[in-house]
Amino acid sequence: SYELTQPLSVSVALGQTARITCGGNNIGSKNVHWYQQKPGQAPVLVIYRDSNRPSGIPERFSGSNSGNTATLTISRAQAGDEADYYCQVWDSSTSNWVFGGGTKLTVL
Amino acid sequence: EVQLVQSGAEVKKPGESLRISCKGSGYSFTSYWISWVRQMPGKGLEWMGRIDPSDSYTNYSPSFQGHVTISADKSISTAYLQWSSLKASDTAMYYCARPGPDPDSEFDPWGQGTLVTVSS
Fold this sequence. Notes:
The complex is a heterodimer.
Chain A: E1 9-12, E2 18-23, E3 33-37, E4 44-47, E5 61-66, E6 69-74, E7 83-91, E8 96-99, E9 103-107
Parallel strand pairs in A: 1-9
Antiparallel strand pairs in A: 2-6, 3-4, 3-7, 5-6, 7-8, 7-9
Chain B: E1 3-6, E2 10-12, E3 18-25, E4 34-39, E5 45-52, E6 57-60, E7 69-73, E8 78-83, E9 92-99, E10 107-110, E11 114-118
């Protein structure tokens, strides 16, 4: 089955740039979606199809995907960006959705 | 506004049965799949399975096949997740989510979640 690998945690200084990676075999050939989940809340879509932002998501959030790694980039990190972030892909070979294990972002 | 509203929190004993619900509104319920996602306490998101409400076709993650049943009643725009015999390990938050029209579309929106607690 297809697997996605994320770092358990990422730290970033206030106002700096955070990068959260999502690794998978030839993930560049798939559409990657990213979700933000704050404590006690349901996940919220922040990036879809690798690099697209839904309405209401700040331009500070961006995404890229190539080769075996997809990346969520958060520029000018704010305290309010502290959350867990999950990547997701569709595995067409099994007709299953796959989530990464999640990354806890800490803003210092 | 497209919305998914889930049923309220449940507290059950091991061995009991349970069905939780997810009601869609603001869109054509039969035009989009509904997926269920589990989140155990302090853990990540796990995709459980999905249903096409137009014909109730389902497919499950191998991890959940045979342990839960996903169903839908299109007449009331509601999808269900049910257990016939709960275990303590089923204690978790359960979310429903709706992808877009393509097979690999993102999940948006999500329901607010239903907390299931199984304890003797």
